[in-house]
Amino acid sequence: RKNTKRVPSFRKLLRTSKIKLDNKLKNKQYKQQSAAKKYRKEQKKLRQAVRDAVCRKPFPLEEYKKKTVAEKREKEEEEDALPLDMMDEDDLKLMQDLAQKASFITRDLSSNEPVHIKKRKNESVIDKYEKMPRRMQTEPEKELIHLLPIKDKGGIIPQTMEKPVLNVTQDEEEDTEEMEIAEDANEEPLPVLTPEEMAAQRRRKLQERKIHIAALAAAILSDPENNIKKLKELRSMLMEQDPNVAVIVRKLVMVSLMEIFKDIAPSYKIRPLTDAEKATKVKKETQKLREFEEGLVSQYKFYLENLEQTIKDWKQRKLKKSNVISLKAYKGLAEIAVKCLCELLVALPHFNFHNNIIVLIVPLMNDTSKMISELCFEAVKKLFKQDKLGFASLGVVKVISGLVKGRNYNVRPEVLKVFLHLRIKEVELKKDSEDIAPKKKFMTYKEKRKNLSRMQRKWKKAEEKLERELLEAEASESKEKKLKLHTETLNIVFLTYFRILKKTQKSPLLPAVLEGLAKFAHLINVEFFDDLLIVLHSLIASGGITYRETLHCILSAFHILSGQGDVLNIDPMKFYTHLYKTLFSLHAGGTNDDLGIVLQCLDVMLAKRRKQVSQQRALAFIKRLSTLSLHVLPNSSIGILATNRVLMHTFPKMDLLLDNESQGSGVYLPELEEPEHCNAQNTALWELHLLQRHYHPIVRKFAAHLIVGAPAEGSGALSPDLSRRPATELFETYNMKGMTFNPPVESVTPRRKVLF
């Protein structure tokens, strides 16, 4: 039958929305499915009735078969064996006639064949099966419908018919094709835009989105409590679907939300309400504040989840199903997301989900992208510098320690160098833990009665009450809690350092570990001093570390001995010897930067331990440092001469090196590696005469100052800006990394020649 379904008119299509058409299609499919289900149930009942009827039909007997020659012989033998003489002749003849007919035994009651039909010769079951018509397996089986059975004289005859195939899908496809053809015919073709028109259209769309974002942000900032729901509307723009402006709009929304949360977030952490608090009746203002806080926390949480998902999609190189944003654009989105997280990490350390931000930021410090890792480094450094209490620093240190251990110490050295920016100057030590931050004790009643008059007791009581209230209302934490947090933080830092020293001594993390030990060594517990010094000396003696790492080992050892290590009876002569013999490894090339660490080592080894340093050792170091100042860059020469000036003021009789006459027996041995036995008292600082003619003006000033005995006053004294600054600061001040000369070279105006 030809399909006479009318094509819907364009006017009707305009009135019918897409959703309505979808609903109609769904209803149609649902009706067809329910009708097919009902039909299947009826057929199932009918098949069951047919099976019951077939079970009640009499079972047909086996067909009668003629016996073979062998069977006849066996029967004849049996007949010969039977006692036939006991039967009458008439009875025997009757039985033989009935056996030849055998219609009452062999007839199939279900067949309509006549009783005396002629039997086929040598017909067997296998032959009958072979003669049956067969079907190919590839032919699809047709589903049969079982009808009501027919009963005749022979028995019950089941009736079946083939199930007609309903071509519903084909009809639907035809309908949809007709609809599409009608839509294509009625729709006007879209105009083709030129590149200039497309750019103008994109600018217009982008301007509309910017205005919308600005309006929402202004409304939220003007009245956060009443417009908290607009945060959701603004956050929904993170899912912008227009491919022309999707990337820029998402970036703008990320940054806008970050600034909004920084502005409207309270200065306290919002905790969830308990069931009892929710059940109690409160004022309208309190209820309004609760709703605002709940909405703020939920939107802040969703915003952080969106940022995290953006970073994960970029890391996993995963595209969304919509394909609105390309894979290359995901990197830009991820960078903006990391910037927002870093800003929130520094700006809101007190607010909710700060630990979650830490868990996101710290692994990105080890990222392969240099820009993202540097962003995270700077954010963590800022957090350490501004964290006065130490709670946020403790959270970051815990995550870094877990990251280093989880990655099997396969992280970038910069991850551990972040520890150097921790604001930890004192910790809670065992020996004086009772003396740190003693609690203020108030006078007892008996003490007041004994020592104070009645009026004094009255005033004292009022004063103590006021002090208690001030202590309760004080926002800043006590010194005791701060020391406790700093102690726990430093314990985790040292645990990370000691693990690396123990397990991976050839790791690239070793310089960062030694640098960290050099900074915090004075805070290590006394129990670890002996073992740590043995490890540091074994690292130096092994020769498997660089010169800079060796300097860090020496600096760490003397920081340990300068603090609580004063009580230990340890002779660090081997560290003095190693530094003395390796000083000439420095030069004006790549090792010039290492001289800053050498200046720190000299300050700790000689100036701060002047009581443990002999005169011979001090003379040997001054002489070797003066020789070194001849072949290093100007900033290094200034630092060395400033150190020599401090040593000449610290140790007496250093003016021996300014005299040509020898003191005592022996000859100076500059090649000897032992500073105690090189006879430095028998030499002079002739290098100062060469440095007086140096091209750098500051070097010339220091050389002239030292050659007259480094006086504190008089004509040979230095200016205060040079004399009061330490050697390390002078080394950094006159550094020439920026390819600029400090102080700047004065321009000389050429003289005009006068012609006569």
TrEMBL record:
Highest taxon of the source? Eukaryota
Task: Please report the stretch or stretches of sequence annotated as the Nucleolar complex-associated protein 3 N-terminal domain.
Answer: 209-303
Supply the SUPFAM superfamilies for this chain: ARM repeat
Where is this protein found?
Nucleus, Nucleolus
Looking at the UniProt record for this protein, which Gene Ontology cellular component terms does it annotate, in alphabetical order?
nucleolus
Q: What is its main location?
A: nucleus
Keywords of this entry: Coiled coil, Nucleus
Looking at the record, the residues that make up the CCAAT-binding factor domain are: 551-703
Q: Which PANTHER family match?
A: NUCLEOLAR COMPLEX PROTEIN 3, NUCLEOLAR COMPLEX PROTEIN 3 HOMOLOG
Please state which protein family the record places this protein in: Belongs to the CBF/MAK21 family.
Q: What is this protein called?
A: Nucleolar complex protein 3 homolog
Q: Which organism is it from?
A: Nothocercus nigrocapillus
